[in-house]
Design goal:
By secondary structure, this protein is mainly α. 77% of the residues lie in helices and 1% in strands. Strands 1-2 form a two-stranded antiparallel sheet.
Length: 325
């Protein structure tokens, strides 16, 4: 499997230039904001979203200033949503680092998120990139709606497979779709290429989220991002569990729902639910659906001409579902 380093190699110059521009876009005259911005830059993740922007731009044309604006805009808005998410989730850690709210408290974290959003808006307006702003703002709206839909359904635990896909399409896939569409848009690839890239990104995003859900059932918790059963503890209904519930008897369904609602901090009972999901074939089912989305994403990708960037994007698709965390 192609690793992130190999995939990045084909856009190494672009990623270096992006880092300089991204840092610049976060500059502020307020010392506290500058201090927090530097902290955010230091703890950067794999930067998959900018990678999608640059690779799709290269697939469809030549990277230009508009592409850098698109990558920075998406990274600014994505970072803003992560900062706000940590406040909403009362999370103290993000990628092994302390979250902004853990170090500087909720009020400052919310304001930092607002600042990042405003930087993204101004970056696109200052560069006259109104269509890019439309693409990305649409994704941010979808992300908020998806998160709220998930919260609303977590109360009643009445999530069907259809609702689950609505949630992850909005919550995760919409931003990756926006990355790919804005990459194509930045090089004037035309409406057809933009549409195909949007659909490609959406399918990759759905496969990515199902992979995340499967991590929750990984029996050896040492090489993954979160310990087993955490989604159950947080009352999140994911695909393996939804499938298991659809196959459960009335009495089994009753105790599973009761465990998620009332006993979600009881390790032994949560483990019992995890075991039930394994025995019901929920894991295999979710893997099968994930592979189907990968296949559909690659079919769209292969409608573009073969190139180094197409092969790197193929590597990135495979990485999203074969990664270890």
């Amino acid at each position: 499997m192609m690793g992130v380093k190999e995939i990045k190699a084909s856009i190494a110059d672009e990623m270096n230039e992006f880092e300089i521009r991204f840092k610049q876009s976060m500059k502020s005259n307020t010392p506290l904001l500058d201090k927090i911005s530097n902290y955010i830059i230091k703890r950067k993740g794999k930067q998959m979203r900018p990678m999608f922007v640059f690779l799709t731009a290269k697939l469809c044309g030549e990277v230009n200033d508009s592409t850098y604006t698109a990558a920075s805009l998406i990274e600014l808005l994505h970072t803003a949503t992560l900062v706000h998410d940590d406040v909403v989730d009362d999370a103290n850690l993000r990628r092994g680092f302390f979250s902004i709210n853990a170090l500087w408290k909720n009020k400052i974290a919310v304001l930092v998120g607002d600042f990042l959003l405003s930087r993204g808006l101004l970056l696109s307006i200052d560069n006259g990139e109104f269509n890019l702003l439309r693409i990305v703002s649409h994704a941010v709206r979808e992300m908020s709606e998806g998160e709220l839909l998930q919260m609303e359904k977590a109360r009643k635990l009445n999530i069907t497979e259809e609702i689950y896909f609505d949630i992850i399409r909005q919550k995760t896939a919409s931003l990756i779709a926006a990355c790919c569409q804005s990459g194509a848009h930045s090089v004037n690839a035309g409406p057809d290429a933009e549409k195909r890239m949007n659909q490609f990104g959406e399918k990759v995003g759905i496969a990515f989220q199902i992979k995340d859900d499967l991590f929750d059932y990984n029996s050896n918790g040492d090489d993954i991002g979160k310990p087993t059963g955490i989604d159950i503890k947080e009352k999140k209904m994911t695909l393996p569990l939804i499938y298991a519930l659809s196959k459960a008897s009335v009495s089994d369904r009753r105790w599973i729902i009761r465990t998620i609602k009332r006993d979600n901090t009881n390790k032994a009972k949560v483990q019992r639910v995890v075991d039930f999901v394994f025995q019901s074939g929920g894991i295999e089912y979710a893997q099968e659906i994930m592979l189907r989305y990968r296949k559909e994403a690659l079919e769209i990708l292969f409608s573009f001409e073969d190139s180094e960037s197409r092969r790197a994007l193929e590597g990135l698709v495979n990485y999203t579902i074969e990664r270890k965390k």
